[in-house]
Specification:
Layout: H1 2-10, H2 14-27, H3 38-54, H4 59-63, H5 71-90, H6 94-106
């Protein structure tokens, strides 16, 4: 699946590459909306910031977290990373949601 995503992106089919990533992410248990509004992105960022503050997750504490070992989460991170790269071109409002979910999986 990652090869297909990379091939689609190499052919400038960024929207198809993102759609493929989102399908894989759904199979890994990570759901994302197909249409993201600026308000939805801001709300998501606010929730994550509040969660980090409530749990006293500082930059220093974040750096000290142990390496991720859950293979499902690692694969999800890989596909969120790819979707994030391509969303800059095709679906920029998806990027904050991807970043927030990556933080949630990490912490």
């Amino acid at each position: 699946s990652s090869l297909l995503v990379k091939l689609l992106a190499a052919s400038s089919k960024f929207d198809e590459a993102i759609t493929n990533c989102l399908v894989v992410l759904g199979n890994l248990g990570e759901q994302f909306p197909t249409d993201v509004s600026p308000t939805g992105a801001v709300n998501e960022l606010s929730v994550v910031i509040e969660t980090l503050l409530e749990n006293n997750i500082t930059r220093e504490r974040f750096k000290l977290l142990p390496p991720m070992t859950n293979k499902t989460k690692i694969n999800a991170m890989k596909f969120m990373n790819m979707a994030g790269q391509y969303s800059l071109v095709s679906r920029p409002m998806l990027l904050p949601l991807l970043g927030c979910q990556m933080l949630r999986l990490t912490v």
